[in-house]
Amino acid sequence: MLSTYTQIPISFTGVIALVLSLALALGLARDGLTRAYYVGLLVLHLIGTVIFYALTIRSPADAHVYYAKSEWVRDFDVGTQFISFLLGWVREFTDLTMLDAFLVFQIPGLLGIIFLHRTAVRFAAEQFDTRVVLLAVILMMPGLHLWTSSIGKDSLAIFAFGLIAMAMVQKEIHLGLLAAGLIVYFCVRPHIAFELALAMSLAFLPIFGYATKRTQFVGIGTAILFLAMLPFIFLFVGIDGNGSEGVQNYVENRQNRAFRGGSSFSLGALNPVERILTVMFRPLFFDASGVLGLVASIENLFLITVFAYLAWNTGVILRLMSRSAMLRFNVFFVLIFMAVFSQTTGNLGLALRQKMMLIPALFLILTAVIAYHNRRRQDRRAALKSSLDPIEQL
């Protein structure tokens, strides 16, 4: 089996991955317009794949480590080793080049983005009897396609979240899809699966709003899962001891150390609000460098706009949360993620990549808010038309 970078860039495996990607984009669409949109997403995703591959082969990157280790890693483990474990099994049966590996890994990333679109469409239609067409632009963010199209955890993470979202948008939570999504997320990022379980336990128990019996059952199950995962997560992230003192020491250590690299900063020098603003919205033009920095700044400006719009609609979100367990889950996940993320991430490059895990939840929250306003506008137009009909008949 060939295993060096001197191979031709793409082999039969890569071609199969391309064909499969196109088949999925066409097969998951329900009409011609959606089919064209999914093909557009595929094109963006493949552009992201090629760009990331070109950047990777010219500089040190995690993808090199995953690819090299996949030649000998055959033992299952979660986190970083899971990526090499998957690649290793593919390389058992194929002559996988580096580009082939990128093309294989972009498939779950593409599926995750498509699942999010399908979820948003169904969510708006069933909860609000309306459509949110313009929101589809969010799923065309360059950063979203760049990070989820490479060898690594991000493509599998968004795929897992897509499965979870699809499970929740059903009339009754689909337990199989939900379990699959949690398992995949646990394999790539156990600590985020831990946060997802906490968000579900808060959202699905009838504490903050209406919940069906199955939803309550899932809430109890995820609460138990959350408690069961606690010792493992502490061990995984390197927290000494299971008490609050161990957590506090871990957070303080993360805040007082600066990571290596030009985009590192000390969290200990910032207050909690500054930490959130830094990891969520920087770089922002004044501290960006190069073309990628400019693109990241544009995306961060867009994120600022989204957060400002959601903050303006806080009252709407709170009202809708009492009716929708799915919306509660996404809101709680965003709050939990931001709280942990802002206290433990001291590198802008890392923050730029990892905050993409927040985009799917933000997208679905935004879907609910805009769908609510669309429904109200439609109701006002219908009421106005009804009031004018008797006059027109005179």
Structure description:
It is a single chain. Helix 1 (12-27) runs parallel beside helix 5 and helix 15 (325-344) packs antiparallel against helix 17 (359-393). The protein has 17 helices and no strands. It is an all-alpha fold.
List the helices and strands and how they pair.
Layout: H1 12-27, H2 32-56, H3 62-69, H4 80-93, H5 98-128, H6 142-147, H7 153-168, H8 175-188, H9 190-204, H10 213-237, H11 244-255, H12 272-281, H13 290-312, H14 314-321, H15 325-344, H16 348-354, H17 359-393
Helix pairs in contact: 1-2, 1-5, 2-5, 3-4, 5-7, 5-17, 7-8, 8-9, 9-10, 9-15, 12-15, 15-17
Essential attributes:
17 helices, 0% strand, globular, mainly alpha, 394 residues
Order of helices and strands: HHHHHHHHHHHHHHHHH
Tell me the helix content: over 70%
Q: What's the main sheet like? A: none
Number of strands: 0
- In DSSP terms, counting alpha (H) and pi (I) runs of 4 or more, how many helices? 17
Oligomer: single chain
Outline:
The chain is mainly alpha-helical and 394 residues long.
